[in-house]
Design a protein that fits this description.
single chain; 607 residues; alpha+beta; Creatine Amidinohydrolase, Chain A, domain 1; Creatine Amidinohydrolase; 3 domains; 6-stranded mixed sheet; 19 helices; 36% helix; 21% strand; globular
Length: 607
């Protein structure tokens, strides 16, 4: 008989008592912070507190009679194990016969009932969808209450860390220069008030950084821009003397982070309001909607002007990024040497290997933090694209098979991301074939020549074609944008072969940074991914228009032990040899140890 999880059941009972007191019939808890950040701090792990499941994606819905938790296929086994004895039912998303959350609510809620959630952690698109689908049942939404506040007595505090200033010299453009361009875009949209909610947009615009989201150097904040004011809503305890002095100097008016809603409610709008629905939580959207309606002005949903400005790096940013990638590439090369020369000789696990690489990166000049938790996955574990080894749950690395390492760092001067799959022992001919096809795809995409106006959808097939020729595909995008001393994932650019409704499909433009990362994942056997970061650059310009292409930023050797030249065209062999010649030329001067430099020469030899 399944053992009862009394801790979770007691928490749910306490939650239901608060729901009854507040007149809430169903209460929903997603995985998000107030800004839809990629990583949620402990303060926001309400769903985990009430059901025990700690995966990165899931939504819990609780009524007086039952509780259901929705998550995707990555987490079915984990969720079942962690929720044993809680009485919470697992709803396996996208499985046949499993309702979506909105379908479940529509089927189970009675006419006139109330659905509650903290509107600050629900996106506007989800909030509007629920509002629309439940309207037939006259369901009302109560979105201004975080019920966990009354139950979770030992809840961690809201993240609050010192902010810091990046110099104009490091950023290439001052806050005032960037702000002038944003105001020009506001004028184009015919707006006089602009709300910014996206954290990396705010940090890029202000030349400020923070430490409130794991692996993202951002501070919890909102910004309001008018014709003559710039207001930054931040936690007062994060504002150091340096930040205060900087804000005074450049004309940033500081407000308390928690005063945004009272500020909006007290504002007298004299013109139309600009906001980006994609990046605005539902409570903020509803507050803005109410106020603009009262003021008889329009609420204009347009893409944040900062998004494209941030994506197309300026010359200073690009110069610094190129230097940072060379240092980072050299350090990863030294790590690959360490792995290959120590496997089977010293105790080595996925976790200890990750810690070794993390410590090597941390010693580089200007290191701030990892750009994401290092993925170190051996053999079958590498077939799970989002695998993360821990000290208590990791595999020993033996002198057989392959180790996949996906890692990166944020430095004063750039943010890196790179994946290499390293041969540590015998591998099969099948693995060599699939590894070689992956390398061919990565290099073919990197060599692309395309007309200005093309999106990632136009070039994605170059990376997939060698794998598609083998009847293989990888179920993730080929490329994502990367920030400058900011988030490792940013838009609007990306590379994928198809787009679902609502997804961004943005033209690739000079100055954009994008990943190039095809892979092969054979469940329960092995995984391969080769990831370089490339810069979009101008090529020839003639009668047919402006052509663009990619320049490599990553210079790390490809493992020749896994290359099968019999499936490569002469152009693919030349591309690999040319790349390896550049790897040696660019990073050998940065490797001080003679025997590693000699190993690198052999590792990048012409084949």
């Amino acid at each position: 008989m399944e053992q009862e999880n009394k801790v979770i059941k007691d928490r749910l009972s306490a939650l239901r008592a608060v729901m009854a007191k507040e007149g809430i019939d169903y209460y929903m808890m997603p995985t998000s912070d107030f800004h839809n950040s990629e990583y949620s701090a402990d303060f926001f792990k309400v769903r985990e507190y009430f059901c025990g499941f700690d995966g990165s994606n899931g939504t819990l819905v609780v009524s007086q009679e039952e509780a259901g938790m929705w998550t995707d296929g990555r987490y079915f086994i984990q969720a079942e194990n962690q929720m044993k004895g809680t009485g919470v039912k697992l709803y396996k998303m996208l499985e046949p016969g499993v309702p979506t959350i909105s379908e479940y609510l529509k089927a189970n809620m009675k006419e006139g009932q109330t659905l509650g959630f903290d509107g600050r952690v629900i996106s506007t698109s989800i909030g509007e969808d629920l509002e629309k689908k439940l309207s037939a049942k006259k369901v009302s939404l109560k979105i201004d209450k975080d019920l966990a506040e009354e139950v979770w007595t030992d809840r961690p505090t809201l993240p609050c860390h010192d902010m810091y200033v990046l110099s104009d010299e490091l950023c290439g453009k001052s806050f005032k220069e960037k702000l002038a361009v944003v105001r020009e875009k506001m004028n184009e949209y015919g707006t006089t008030f602009h709300l910014l909610s996206k954290l990396d947009d705010i940090m890029w615009l202000t030349n400020l950084r923070g430490n409130d989201v794991e692996c993202n150097p951002v501070a919890l904040s909102y910004a309001v821009i008018t014709a003559d004011e710039f207001l930054l809503f931040a936690q007062p305890d994060e504002v150091t003397d340096e930040v205060k002095s900087y804000c005074d100097k450049v004309g940033i008016t500081l407000k308390d982070y928690h005063e945004l809603f009272s500020y909006i409610e007290g504002t007298s709008f004299t013109g139309d309001v600009l906001f980006d629905k994609r990046n605005t939580n539902f409570l903020t959207f509803k507050t803005l909607s109410k106020k603009t309606k009262e003021a008889a002005v329009s609420l204009k949903n347009e893409k944040d002007p900062t998004e494209l400005l941030k994506a197309c790096k300026n010359e200073t940013e690009l110069r610094n990024i190129r230097e940072v990638y060379l240092r980072d590439s050299a350090k990863l090369t030294e790590f690959i040497y360490w792995v290959k020369n120590n496997v089977g000789k010293i105790p080595m696990t996925e976790y200890s290997a990750a810690m070794k690489l993390d410590s090597m990166r941390a010693a580089l000049p200007g290191f701030i933090e990892l750009s994401f938790p290092t993925i170190s996955a051996y053999k079958a574990n590498a077939a799970m694209a989002h695998y993360e080894a821990t000290e208590d749950n990791c595999s020993e690395i033996k002198p057989e098979g392959m180790l996949l390492v996906d890692s990166g760092g944020t430095y004063l001067g750039g943010t890196t991301d790179v994946t290499r799959t390293i041969v540590v022992g015998h591998i099969s001919d099948e693995i060599k074939r699939n590894y070689t096809a992956t390398v061919m795809g990565m290099l073919r995409l990197a060599k692309a020549n395309f007309l200005e106006g093309c999106t990632g959808k136009n070039v994605d097939i170059l990376a997939r074609q060698p794998l598609w020729d083998l009847g293989i595909d990888y179920q993730h995008g080929t490329g994502h944008g990367i920030g400058y001393v900011l988030n490792v994932h940013e838009g609007p650019q990306n590379i994928r072969w198809r787009f679902t409704p609502g997804q961004n499909e943005a033209p690739l433009m000079p100055g954009m940074i994008v990943s190039d990362e095809p892979g092969v994942y054979i469940q329960d056997e092995y995984g391969i991914r080769i990831e370089n970061i490339v810069e979009v650059v101008k090529r020839g310009n003639g009668r047919y228009g402006q052509f663009l292409g990619f320049d490599h930023l990553t210079y790390v050797p490809i493992d020749l032990e896994a290359i099968d030249t019999s499936i490569m065209d002469s152009s693919d062999i030349k591309a690999l040899n040319d790349y390896h010649a550049e790897v040696y030329r660019r990073i050998s001067p940065l490797i001080q140890i003679t025997y590693i430099r000699e190993w690198l020469k052999e590792a990048t030899r012409s084949i």
